[in-house]
Every structure is written in C-alpha cells, then in structure tokens.
Amino acid sequence: MSGSIHRGEGLADALSGIRVIDLTAMVAGPMATMMLADLGADVIKVERAGHGDDARRLPPFWPTDGDDPDDGAVFVSLNRNKRSVQLDLKRPAALAAVRRLIDGADVFIESFRPGKVDALGLSYAALRQTNPGLVYCSISAFGRGPLGHDLPGYDPVVQAFTGVMDANGHPDGDPARVAPSVVDLTTGMWAATAIMAALQLRVRTGQGCEVEATLVDTGFQVMNHQVMAYLATDEPPRRTGSETPLAAPYEAFHAADGQVMIAAGNDGVFRRLCDAIGLPGLATDPRFTTVADRRSRRGELHELLERRLRQMSTADVERTLGHAAVPVSAVNRLDAALRTDLATERSVLQTPVDAPPGPRQPLLQRLPILPPEIPLHWPPALGRHTESVLREVGLGDEQIAEAIGHELASRS
C-alpha cells in the first residue's frame, strides 16, 4: 500500500495490505494497533492537532537530539511502525478527511468515551453505509450499557473495581496495584484478536462487523481462575504476597544475598528440590508427602527450606536448582533482568532501523511472537505523515490546507 511501512516477510507481513485508521490514545488502543502494525498492517494514527496522544506528554521522556519534542516512554513503547496524522476533528474539513480515510480502510478503531464518536458521525451504523466491509472496533473502560456508558476509567481504577487490586499484595498489607498496566495491555490484545478474527470472518462473508473490547471485561478475565475458585468455594482470593496458593513450595525465599522464586508444582519437582539442596528427608517426611500436605503446612515447610537456602547465594541457588530441573529464578530488578544472558539471547530489545539521534541508544521491545530479525521503526513524530496520507486518499493542496488549518499547513 502506498506510503505504508514495509516490515519484511513471513508473520511480519501477515496483515500486509490491511489499512487501519486508529483514533485511540494512551495504552489499550495503541497496544492493539501496534500489534497489527507489527504484523504488517498500515496503521494511520490520527492524533489531536497540536497535542497528539496524551501518552506523548507522560514522563519520563525519551531524549533525542532532533527538532521534534521528546516523547514520553509510554508513547514510545506502544506506537512503533505507525504513521501519524494530526487533525482537529472540530473542523468540518478535518472530519471529512477522516471519513475519507475510513472509507478506504479495512479497520477503524477508537477509544473515545461511548457516544462521542456517534456525535462526530463516526458510528458503525454511519460508516458501514459507505464501507460495508469495515471492521469497527471500540475500546472503553466500562462498556456501552446504561450503567457503564458514562463511566470514565483507567487501568488502576478497573484493577480496583474487578478485584485485581484487592488480591494483590501481602497478607498483612494494603491492596496493591499490579505495576504493569495489565488490564490496559491485555485489553489491547483482546481488541487485536477480535479485529483479526473479524477480518477472517470478512473473507468468508464479504462483510465487516463491529467488535468491542472493554477494560472491565478484561479485568474479570485476568482473574479467571480466581473467579472459578470463588464460585467453587464462596471464598474470594486473599492476598498471598509471592505465594501461589495452588501448591507449595511455590513462593519466594531468602537466600544469603537476595531472594529467589522457587516453583515446585508437583511431587517430582519437590523431590528434586530437596535432593539438590541436601534435604532429601523432607521429600519422604509424612508431613509433606502430597501437594495438599505441603499446602496445609506451608509455613513449616517454608521455614525448613529457607534455613538451608539462606546459606547459599542467589547465584548458587539458581545454578544448583537449575541443574536439578527445578523452576527457579533470582527475584531480579528490571535493570538486572535486562542484562541477563537469557534476555540477550531472546533479543528482548532491538535497535530500530530509523533510530533518532540522542544521548541514549534508541531501543524498542520486540513483539514476543515475532523473530528478532524483523525491523522495527521508531514511533512517528506528531503529524509527520499528515500531508502524505491525505494525498494518498486523493486530497489536493487546497483540501489539505482546509483540513489541517493554515497554521499546521504552514509547517508542512
């Protein structure tokens, strides 16, 4: 497709020829469209004129030596491989330009509060009249029903609402927000999955359809086994710190110089753990014979194991248990985790092909399902592709100037 970013071959080219008009911001929507872009779709990100995606303004910022303003790290992490158009949708000509973009697109995705796109004339009912093959995706916090319609929300609010926050933390402490934006990011994944399913359905039917992803549904979904456990026992999940209530030992232990996470999920792993650290008698001790026994005596077992583990360094524990095929890891800080040989082997971080100059080496995190040789493109400066994209849909000089306004036109 003219002007789109070429990504390579194979899976990274799976959505080649698919054009996505993206009116989302912050985390959930940009996560969805980044996945589509990484898989080869031409994603055109339509941003608010002069301001752009709010995530551009969230510190900390990625420093560059160029003329463009530094963008926030959240924006940089979620907007690679896209093209940016800036338009003021309060301008009739700008709104008409967006309609023209959507009429030639395969996918339209938005994350406004429910009802706002309808007021702009961008409802699914309106858009399907001129583009019946359109896949239309809406993302919201609490959905479009009568109770959720007017409720604003962000990831931590939905974590609090759905029980995620209450289940996280230590037993003697307050509830804690899960630090990664797990609800936002997972909502983006659900949205991308729904869009790709709808595109496949279109192959069979020739028709587009409307799909929805909401933070509140995602919040309950990420609690799926806690929900089923509650339904089975009438007991909501309790805060367990590092422990996993399903098995023991399945938690963090203190070593001589830090903490290690050990996950002995069955009897065989437990035996190997005990043998490896020189406590073979624990594996045959009648107090700890089965998973249920070990769960019921978790505190007693934890104390016995930790007494031995405190005599070993975290590196020794990792090496010893690793050789014994026991799942184990030091409890790493992020900087240490990114420096590990395994992170290097997995090519977690990559240098983009169009890296901007700056005091730090520009790095991006690859999509986990794609191989590291697939090139990544740095997120676009606000409005960098406005004129070229509008020309692609047939707008002339005067129409472009009217759509973007004289101030922006003079900068182009």
Number of strands: 13
Strand order of the largest sheet: 5-2-1-6-7-8
Shape: elongated
Q: What is the CATH topology classification name of the largest domain?
A: Rossmann fold
Domain tally: 2
Task: Determine the mean pLDDT.
Answer: 95
CATH architecture label name of the largest domain: 3-Layer(aba) Sandwich
Low-confidence stretches: none
Q: Structural class, please? A: alpha/beta
Q: What is the H level of CATH, i.e. the homologous superfamily of the largest domain?
A: Crotonobetainyl-coa:carnitine coa-transferase, domain 1
How much of the sequence lies in strands comes to 5-15%
What is the number of helical segments per DSSP (H or I, 4+ residues)? 18
Structure description:
With 412 residues, this protein is α/β, with parallel strands linked by helices. It folds into two domains: 10-222 and 350-411, Rossmann fold (3-Layer(aba) Sandwich); 250-330, formyl-coa transferase, domain 3. 40% of the residues lie in helices and 13% in strands. The chain has helices spanning 28-38, 73-78, 92-103, 116-119, 124-130, 155-162, 182-205, 215-222, 224-233, 267-276, 280-284, 291-296, 298-309, 314-323, 334-338, 341-345, 386-392, 397-411, and strands at residues 19-23, 42-48, 61-62, 71-72, 82-87, 107-110, 135-140, 210-214, 250-254, 259-263, 328-330, 349-350, 364-365. A six-stranded parallel sheet has the order 5-2-1-6-7-8, sandwiched between helices. A hairpin with a 4-residue loop joins strand 9 (250-254) and strand 10. Helix 3 crosses helix 18 and helix 6 (155-162) crosses helix 8 (215-222). The chain is elongated. It starts with 18 loop residues before the first strand and ends with a helix. The mean pLDDT is 95.
